[in-house]
């Protein structure tokens, strides 16, 4: 009789309690994993924000441009101007390594300086990289001009044997086009990292710039070590009709042959 009572208690109270406790442990572990994943995503999220006037003659309209520098979709849920958030109606999505713009109407009465920031769905806050905008009788003014060069993260060609490394094997030359041309940066080195790398080159004014980027190819077989040109183009900072800062992403053709061979190479030189 005692045995039957014990078995009854076992299957009506102890076993169900054990099952509930196991379920609670599973739910707790699941919650911990979700929190860790959320923290990892928040830490890995990366974006640059730039602001400029939508119309150079209009003090109440500005454009916010966000450049997604990571491999995840970014949702912008708040735009802040001078500490006050604006009602966006819905979130604003930006695909990986893409950019998007959002036009903002601001109060031009009295206050004519604009500190712009955005908040992502992962609770990261990004301030405008070109600083605070201001507007007065002389028109619009910003705090910074420049060219931001990005090397994407974990591209297959970054680990190819043809590149020397792991550090200081990219260099950049930036020339202000004019009469005469002025070399702003000559053979300025960039450091490659395992994750995305970027270097900001500060410039004093808007205008047209010629940008050359090279990567150092190591000696391999009959190929001699040399600098290989992967970017040779002109860019314009159109402020106040556009971004005060230009984003350039460096890409390179994948594969080792015939690319970057002795007979098929846009060779350049930097000391």
Task: Write structural notes for this entry.
With 271 residues, this protein is an alpha+beta fold. It folds into two domains: 44-141, Immunoglobulins (Immunoglobulin-like), CATH 2.60.40; 145-268, Immunoglobulin-like (Sandwich). The protein contains one helix and 19 strands. Strand 13 and strand 14 form a beta hairpin. It is flat, with a radius of gyration of 27 Å. 22% of the residues are buried.
Relevant terms:
single chain; 271 residues; alpha+beta; Immunoglobulin-like; 2 domains; 5-stranded antiparallel beta sheet; 19 strands; flat; disordered C terminus
At a glance:
By secondary structure, the chain is of the alpha+beta class. It has 1 helix and 19 strands.
- Distance, first to last CA: 95 Å
How many extended strands?
Answer: 19
Q: What is the name of the CATH topology of the largest domain?
A: Immunoglobulin-like
How much is the radius of gyration in Å? 27 Å
List low-confidence stretches.
157-167, 253-271
Shape assignment = flat
- Report the biggest beta sheet as strand number plus sense, adding barrel if it closes: 5 strands, antiparallel
- Percent range for helical residues? 10-25%
Class per helix and strand makeup: alpha+beta
| Overall structural domain count | 2
The helix count comes to 1
CATH class of the largest domain: Mainly Beta
Order of helices and strands: HEEEEEEEEEEEEEEEEEEE
Strand content range: 35-45%
Average per-residue pLDDT, rounded, comes to 76
CATH architecture of the largest domain: Sandwich
